[in-house]
Amino acid sequence: METDRIFVTMNATFKNEEKCRVAMETIVNDAHAAEGVNSHFWFRSEDGKSLFVLEQYDNKKALVEAIKRFTSARISFFKSIKVTDVSVYGNVSTSIKLMFAPLSPRYSQYYGGYSKIAPKDQEPGIKEFERKRIIVATNARFKDEEKAKVAIEKLAQDTYNESGTNSHFWSRSKDGKTLYLLELYADENALTEHVMANISSRDAFFESMELDVVTVYATVSDKTKQMLVPINPQYMNYYGGYSK
Prior knowledge:
About 35% of the residues lie in helices and about 35% in strands. The chain contains eight helices and ten strands. It has helices at about 15-35, 60-70, 70-80, 95-100, 145-160, 190-195, 200-205, 220-225; strands at about 5-15, 35-45, 50-55, 80-90, 105-115, 135-140, 165-175, 180-185, 210-215, 235-244. A ten-stranded mixed β-barrel has the order 1-3-2-10-9-6-8-7-5-4, surrounded by six helices. The protein is globular. This is ABM domain-containing protein.
């Protein structure tokens, strides 16, 4: 089940930020109450002009049900932004691709790793700790795919039992040339503990890849930024939403 997750990401620019913010609040509250929607996370660029949205679903069924709930808030949201690109990570059906056709997304298939099961909510409403997650997204190309496979398997095994590491999920593009790694951490402490405990495994993975873009989605401290200098990431700040 933890390999069946589907991630949907979107980059956009604001046309009307206030309308976007109002629609976003309705969307995230509805999504949080829905079963199978583990993340509906929103980030804004440091210059305030761009928006990044990450949605995480348990499986194909949860994604289909979410698409069918295309409410007036979603319509208002899409009218308030200009979509730059949409990507879908995970194994999806032809029917789902037809549903997404208006957005012309890029697709990448599951390649390795996991995204853990989110616990069922006992109380309604977004919790404060669900706003503090940290996402690290890496786009890269293979230099040595065999070495990358070995490094991925080791990282997935070594990190699975880390209490604050919620996802280490790899997807590969259709042409087989590029790889997308999504890491999801409970908070800054969890990210720091992970990096310090897996230095050699992370180095082995990054040495097998040619990095394109690494982005950290979260509002993080200068200390965390200093720790991540070797991978030279971009940053986007928390804007709204949650990850369970």
